[in-house]
Amino acid sequence: MKKQAGFSLVELVIVIIVVGLLAVAALPRFLNVTDEAKKASIEGVAGGYATAVLSARAQWEANGRPSAIVNNAKVNSVSYDGSTFMLTAEQSDVRVGYPIHYGQDNSASIGGLDNTECKVLFEQLMQNPPQVAEIDSGDVLNGKYQYAARKDNNGNNSACTYFQLASVTNNANGVAQITSAHSFTYTPKEGSVVVNIQ
C-alpha cells in the first residue's frame, strides 16, 4: 500500500502566491463593477422619475389641460394614479404642466418647494420608490434610506436634487459628504431630470 502525502511546503507556497496574484488582479475589476452598478442604479431611478413626471404631464394634457383662476392666478392640477398634483402654470420662462406639489394646494408654486416637498414628490410620483429622506434629517445615513432629497435654488429656479446614499464618500476628516454622491436633479420650470455622476 502506498502512503499518501499532501502538498509539500513549496507547492503550498506556490498555490498561495498564485491565489494572491489572482485576487490582486480581480479586485480592481470587482470594485469597478460595483461603481458601474451604482451609476446604472441612479440612471435607472432617474429614468423612472422622469417617466413619472412626463406621465403626470401627459395625463394633464389628456384631460384637456384643466386649470382654475385663484387669486387672479392660473392654477393647474391633475389627478394622476389616484393622487392630485399641482403643476407649473403659465409664467415667463416656465414650461407649463410639470408637478410641483403633491395634494390640492392652490397656492403651490415652484418657489414653494422645500426639502419636504421634494421628498414627497419622489415618494408620490413613483410606484414603489426607493426609501428617501430629507437631506437635513438626522438619520439620513442610518442605512434605512437609499436617497436624500434636497431643494436647490430659489424662486422659479427651484429644483429638487436626489442624492444616492450608496455612493456617498467621506472627506479627509472621515465625515460623510452626501453632496459628493451621484445624484439627479428635477427642475420643474423646464420639466427636466438630469443625472449627475460624480
From TrEMBL:
It comes from Photobacterium gaetbulicola Gung47. The chain crosses the membrane at residues 12-31. InterPro entries: N_methyl_site (IPR012902), Pilin-like (IPR045584). PROSITE patterns: PROKAR_NTER_METHYL. Keywords: Membrane, Transmembrane, Transmembrane helix. It holds the Pfam family N_methyl. This is Putative MSHA pilin protein MshB. It comes from the Bacteria.
